Fold these 4 entries.
Entry 1:
Amino acid sequence: MEVKDFDYELPLELIAQVPLEKRDSSRLMVVDRKTGNIKHQKFSDILSYLHQGDVLVLNDTKVLPARLLGEKVDTHAAIEVLLLKNIEQDKWETLVKPARRIKVGTIISFGEGLLTAECTAIGEEGIREFEFSYQGIFYEILDKLGSMPLPPYIHAKLEDKNRYQTVYAKEEGSAAAPTAGLHFTNELLDAIRKKGVTICSITLHVGLGTFRPVKVEKIEEHQMHSEFYQMSKETAEILNHAKKNHQRIISVGTTSTRTLESIMQKYGKFQECSNFTDIFIYPGYQFLAIDGLITNFHLPKSTLVMLVSAFATREIILNAYRTAVKEGYRFFSFGDSMFLTTDINA
C-alpha cells in the first residue's frame, strides 16, 4: 500500500489558524463507517449520537510549554529545543534546530542560565538527548521559559495558551495536544454523563510522531516513534465491563485509540499498565478495542489519515475529506471534528 493513496487536495485557507471562541461550536461531520453516509452537525450535537451505556475514553495528557529558545554557551549561537519525551529524571529526548551545531558535550543555556542542558547522545533527523540542570522545580522553570509547541502549519499567535489544552488535561508530558478533545467543554461533559455515558481516561504523551511526515513510499516500511502510555486500574475495569456487556467504547482521538489498541494487542484485555507503544494502524488492521472514534481532520498522507481509513475504509474517508473541503470545514488542530460510528440516525 502506497503513501500517495492517502493524499487529498486541501486549500490552504481551510487550515484553521486560531481556535473558535466556543470550543463546542465547531462543526461535526458524522460519518457511518460502514456505509459512508454523512451528516453535518455542530460539535455540541455529539450528545445526540452518544447513548446510555456508552463509554467515552479521553486522553488526559497535558501539553508542556515544550519549545525552548536558548544559546550555545561557547559560541552564543541561537538554538531551538523541543522537548519530546522524558527518558528518566532530568534526561529528555528532544528535537533540535539547527541540530548540526549540537554534539555530545555541547551545553545550551536558557533564560540567562536559569536552565542549562548538556547533550548526552545524538539520534537521527535532529534528535538529541539532553540532561538538564537547574535550581528549583523543572516544570515551574519550563512554564516560565517555554512556549506552546504549536504545529508548523499554524502561523497565527495563540492568544490564550489554554486553548491548546483540553479542559480535562492533567498528566504533564506531551509535545502536542490530543486535538480531538479540544472541542469538549466541562458543561458538555456534564451533559454526557447525565445521559448515562461513562467517561474514563487514559494517558498517552504525544511525541515525535506528530511532527514527522511519512517519508517512505510503501506505508508498511514506515516506523512509528514510540510514545509513553498508561492506564489505571479503574479505567481497565470500566472498559472490561463494557466489553463483556457489549457496550460501545468510543475513543476521543487517535492517541486514545492507539493506547487502547496497544493494550488489547498486548494483553488480550484491558488492564492497569504503563509502557511505550509504536503501534502503526493502517488499512487491514483488525480493531480490538473501539466501536466509535471522534477525531479531527488530519494532514494528507499522514499516519493519522491511515488510522481513520483503517477504522472505516480509505474510500469512505477520502470521500468524507473531499466533502469537508467542498463544505468549507476547518482542518487540523484548531479545526472541525468527525465522528466515525455506525447507524448515524440520531
Entry 2:
Amino acid sequence: MSTGVRGQWSSKLGFILAAAGSAIGLGNIWRFPYVTGENGGAAFVFVYLACVLVIGVPYMYAELALGRAVQKNPVGAIDRLRPNSSWILVGVLGVVTGLFILSYYAVIAGWTFGYIFKMVIPNWLTFGEFVSRPVLVIFLYTVFMLLTIFVVHGGIRGGIERWTTILMPVMFFLLLGLIVYVNFLPGSGKGLAFYLAPDFSKITGKVILSALGQAFFSLSLGMGLMVTYASYISKEDNLVSSGLFVALADTAIAIMAGLIIFPALFAMGQDPAAGPGLVFNVLPAVFEHMPGGTVVGVVFFVLLSIAALTSTISLLEVPTAYLVDNRGTARKVAVWIVGILVFLLGLPSALSQGAVSWLSQPIVGDMEFLSLMDFLFGNISLAVGALFLSIFVGWVWGATNASEELATGNPKFKKWAPLWSFLIRFICPASIFIILLNLFKFF
C-alpha cells in the first residue's frame, strides 16, 4: 500500500509528540522513581543518562531508519528487505510482544485511572483490596481499552496525532505544577539532595545493570514500535533531530517525575526504596497527610493515566498497522479485531491480583500471572527482539544503508555515521545481551 493510504504525520512536531508519548508511560513515572530509590538516587540517575545517550538513542535511530526507509510495520519492513527469510520472525516477535504487553499494561493503566477516584474517597480500600475486586478491575480495564481503541480508530492524523498533541502538553504542565507544589513542602530539600547530588561511590555493577535496563525499557524499544511510527514520517523530515527530541522528552519526563516523588517522600518521612508499591501504596498515604493532598493525589493519577494512555495507543498501533499493511484490512476493522483480541488476552492478568485464586498463586518462582506476563513479554521478549533487530539493521540490512536513511533530511549526520555504525553493530547488541543475561540473574 502507498504511504498516502496508510497515512502520515502532518508535521514533525506531531511525530515527536506521538513518539515521545509512546515512550513516556508507567515506566517513567512509576518504574523510574522506585528503581532510582532502590539504587541510591543521584548516582543511578547519572549512569541512566549515560546509558540513554550511548545505547538508547543509537538503537532508536536503527528502528527509525528501518521504518522510514521501507514505510512499513516491523513485519512488512523486514520482509521487504529480506523476502522469504527467517528474519521476518523478528518482526513477528515485535508485533506479538506489543499485543501481550498491551494486554497486561492496560490492566495496570486501569488501576491508575481508578485511583483518580479512589483519592477522593480516602481509606476506602487498600491497594490489595482494590485490585482483587473482579467487577471493578474488569470495568476499569474495559474503560481504558475503549479509550485506546477510540484514539487509534481515528487514524494517524485524526486519532493518534490529534490526541497526543493535546495530552502531552497537559501532562507536562501537570508535572510542572506538582513539582512546584511539593518542593515548597518542609523537608523536601532532603529529597532533592538524594535525587540530584550524586555520591559516585554508590555506583556498583548492580546500579549499572539497573540503569542499562531502565534506559532501554523506558524508551519503548524492542517491539518495532518506533519502526511503525517512523513509517508514517515524510522523507524530507530530519530523523536524527526527531529521534533526539523523543529521547530528550522521554528522559525529561522521567527526571521530572523524580522531582515530584522524592521531595514528597522525604517531606513526609517515607523510605525512597519502597519498591514497586511506591505509587499505589506509599504515595496515596503521603498525599493523605499533605496539605491539599486530595487535589495533589487526583492530579498525580490523572497525570499517570495520561502517560499510560499515550503508551497503550502506540502498543495498539503496531499490530493494527500489521493488519493494514500485510493483510489489507481496513484500519477501522483492524483496530477492533486487535482491541477485542487484546482484551480477551488481558482478562487473566486483570483477575490475577486476588480475584481468581489459581491465577493469583505463584506460577514460576514468586510470579503470579500478571508478573509472569511482564517478565516474559515486557522484559525477555523485548530484549530478544531488540537484540535481533539491532543485528538485522547493523549487519544484515547494513549500517551503511541505515546511515544513508538517517542522513536523508540531515546531511551533517554523515560525519557521525562511522560512530553510529560502531555503536549499532557492536555496543548495542552487546549491551542488550548483557541486559538479557541480567534478567536471568546471570550476574
Entry 3:
Amino acid sequence: MSLIKMVIQRLVIKRMNKKTSKVKLKLNDKYNLGFKMRSDPGLALPFGLDENVVREISKIKNEPKWMLEFRLKSYHLFVSKKMPSWGADLSKIDFSKIHYYIKSPDKNTKSWKNVSSEVKKTFDRIGIPRVEREYLSGVKAQYNSEVVYGSLLKQLKDQGVIFMSTDEAVQKHPDLVRKYIGTVIPPADNKFAALNSAVWSGGSFIYIPKGAKIEKPLQAYFRINAARMGQFERTLIIADEDSFTQYIEGCSAPMYSESSIHSAVVEIIVKKNARFRYTTVQNWYKNIYNLVTKRAYAYENATMEWIDGNIGSKVTMKYPAVYLLGKGAKGEVISLAVAKDGQHLDTGAKMVHLASNTSSNIISKSISKGSGRASYRGLVKVIGSAENVKSHINCDALLLDSKARTDTYPSMEIDNKRTNITHEATVSKVGQDQLFYLMSRGLSKQDASALIVNGFIEPVMRELPMEFAVELNQLINLEMEGSVG
C-alpha cells in the first residue's frame, strides 16, 4: 500500500475510532517508492548554478521584477555563505553537477484527465487520485520542479480559502506573496535557505481566512523523478485569526546512484487564536541530501504543531521551529527519525519564546540500525521579558545494532528565571535477553524485534492528537524495520 494511501486511511480510521490504534511494524528490505518512470523532461536547464540560471528560471516563469530581484539577492547570499561546519557531512555535495530546474511538459491542471500518461502513472502508483476523492479537501502534486496537478473543494473556494502552487500565487496573489515571502525565513538565514530563495520552484501557497475551520486535510506530494536533480519547493502558509487547518506533505524519489538535493523552505504564519498542523512523511532513497528549513510564527493564543517523520536519504538536516511571538502561544514538535546503513539523520526542533505565558513541547524519537546514525539537535530559547514560560523536551533513541550510533545536542538559552523547563533523554538497545524472552514465547526473531520497536514508538503515538497518529504510519519500507503503522 502506498505512502499516501496508508497515511490518509489511517487518518480516517483515527477520526472514526476516536482513539489511538496500535503501531504495527513489519520487516521489509525494499524501498517501494523507488520506481523510475520514463517521461519527457520538457525543459532541463544545464548542470550548475550561476546568475544566468537564476534569471532564466525567473524568465521561464514570467515573474515580476520584484521576484527576480529577490532571487538574485538570494543567489549572491548563497555564493557568499560557507557550508555548515556542524551536523552531517556535506563535503561531497557538488553544486556544479545538479540540475536546478527541470520543467515537466505538463501544465498545471485542475483536471486529472489532462495530466500526461507517464506522470499520471507515477501518482497513480503513489495513490493520489483515490485518496483525493475520498479523504482530502485539496491536493497538489509536484513532479520535479513544477506542480502538475492541483484541486480544491468548491465549498472551500467559496469560503475564501486559497490553495495553489506558489508559482501560481505569484501571478494571482502577488500582494500576499510579496508581503510574506522571506519574512519568517529570510534568505540570509542559512546557505540552503539562500539557495532555495534563489532557485525555488513549485511548493504550496495556502491562505486560510478568518474563522475558517477545515476538517479534511490539504495534501501535497513532491516527487523527484530525474537523476542529479535539485528540488527546491517553496511553501508559504498564512492561517488567519480563529482558523484551523491541517496539511500533509509526502516526498519520495527513484533509486539512482547519483546524488540529488532536496532543499525546501516552509514559512508559516499562525495568527491570533488560530491553529495549524503541518505533517511531513518523507521517505527518500539513500542518494538524497535532504536539507530543509521549516519555521512558523505563532501569535497570541495561536497553536502550531509540527509532526515530522524522516526515513531514508543519505543525509537529512531538518529542525522545525516555532517562534512564539504572542502571549499564550503554543508550539509542539513530534518527530521520528529512522537511520539505516550509511545514513545520517540530523534532526530536531527549535522553540523560541518571545512572549509571556507561552508553552512548548518537543518529543523526539530516533531508531538506528546497522551503521546508521541519528542525531537530535535542538534549541529552547526564552528571552528576558518572557515570563511564566513552560517547555518540555523528551529525546529517546533506540539502537538496534552494535555499530549504530546516536547523538544528542540540546541547547538551552534561558534568560528569565520565572520559567519551567524540563529535559529528559534516554538511549536504549535491543538486548539479547529481550529477544530470548519473546522468542521463547513463540515469536520469530523478526517479530520479536518488531515488537520491541513497537513498544519504543508507542509513547509517541499516545502523545499525538488522534489525527496525527496517522503520520507515523509509513515510516517504513526500509532495510531497517519496514513499516511503522
Entry 4:
Amino acid sequence: MQQRDFLKTAMATAVLAASLPVQAQDTPAVPSAKFAEVNGQHIFYSIQGAGKPLILLHGGIDPDSFGSNLAELAKGRQVIAVHLQGHGRTPDTDRPLRCETLGDDVAALIGHLNLGKADVMGYSLGASVALQTAIRHPEVVDRLVLVSAPMSQDGYYPDGVAAFEQLEANSATFGESVSASALGQAYPDVDWTKLFRKLGDLGKRPFDWSADVARIQARTLLVFADADAIRPEHVVEFWKVLGGGRRDAGIDGSQRPASQLAIVPNTTHYTLAVEPMLPEIVERFLATE
C-alpha cells in the first residue's frame, strides 16, 4: 500500500488522525517556539501574530492540522498553537490521554502565560480538549470554537465508533507506517505506536458531555463539514443544547442565540481544518460584539 493510501486508511480508521494526508507533506516553520512546565508536562507552544490571544489546538496525530490556516488566523490576532501531550514537540508521559486532563493542561498554560481569558479553538481531538477546557475552567475561556467534534460518543457514525475500538490493536502497524512518512520525519521523537495505542484507549471510552455543554458560559461557534464524521442529527442536537434552533430569530435578529453554527459545504472531517473558508468564518465569530 502506498504511503498516501495508508494515511487515508489510517484516518478512516481513526477519526482522531484527521488531517494526516493533507498536512504530512508540509510542516510550517515555527515563528516563536517555547516550552511551558505545567501539570508535570513539558508543553510546546508557538506564538504567531499579535492581538487578542487565540489558543489553537490541533487534531489527533498531526500537530500541524491547520496548515496555512494558522497563518491566516494570525493575521488578526495572536495565535498560540499548542502541541498536546505526546504530539509533535511535546513529549509523552506515563499519564493516559484524556480530554479532561489535556483541558487542564490548556487552562494551566493560559494561567502560565498570564492571559486571563483567551479565545480557545480546537479541531477534532483538539476540539474535544477545548470543550473540556471550557467545561472545567470557564474562568480562562472567553470564546470557544469547536471544529468537528461531538459532545457524546454516539455523535459518531457507528462504523466510526467501531474503528476506535480497533485502533489499539492496530497501533503497531499504523505507528510503523507513520514513522516512515513525511510526518514521522518531521517529528522523529514521537513514539507513533504508543500514540496510536493511547488514542485508541481514549477513543473507545464512552462519554456524554451534553449536561456539561448546557452549562457552558463561553459564547461558542460550532463548525462542521457537510460530509462530516459526526452525524447530522447529532450536530443539530449539539446546537440545540447550546441554545440554538429553538425559535425564529425575528426580523431584527434579536431572538438569535449567542452561539453560532456553521456547516461548511464541500468538506469532510478530514479536510475541514485546512479549508480556506475556515479562518473567515472563525474571525467573523470572534469579532462579533
